[in-house]
Structures are given as structure tokens and as C-alpha cells.
Amino acid sequence: MPTNIEEEDILRKKVWKIINLVQANQLFVHYKELSIKFLAEKSKKV
């Protein structure tokens, strides 16, 4: 089971991947707030 630091690193990599994809495709998101949903640990969705 990953530690908190490992979990943060995994999440950070996922966030940077999304940021880079948005930038590469010149997509722009305009919204007042961003809601973050957490999936159950058993789920493998990214």
C-alpha cells in the first residue's frame, strides 16, 4: 500500500499530465470553482 508521500506523488503526476494535455491541445477551462471527486480505492479509473 502506498504511503501518503507516494500517493501525493502519483496524484501530482496525474495533475501535471492533465495540465500538459490541456496546454498542448490549447484547451481553456473557465469555471469559478473546480470540484474534485475521489473514486474508491478499488477503482482503476484515471
What's this model, at a glance?
With about 45 residues, the chain is mainly alpha-helical. Helices cover about 45% and strands about 0% of the residues.
Q: Can you characterise this structure?
A:
This protein has one domain (1-46). It is mostly helical and 46 residues long. The protein is extended, with a radius of gyration of 13 Å. It has one helix spanning 4-24.
| Largest sheet data | none
Strand content: under 5%
Q: How many domains would you count in the coordinates?
A: 1
Residue stretches low in confidence (pLDDT < 50, at least 5 long) are: none
* Helix-strand string: H
Counted by DSSP, the helix tally is 1
Q: Mean pLDDT across all residues, rounded?
A: 78
Span from first to last CA? 18 Å
List keywords for this structure.
single chain; 46 residues; mainly alpha; 1 helix
SSE arrangement:
Layout: H1 4-24
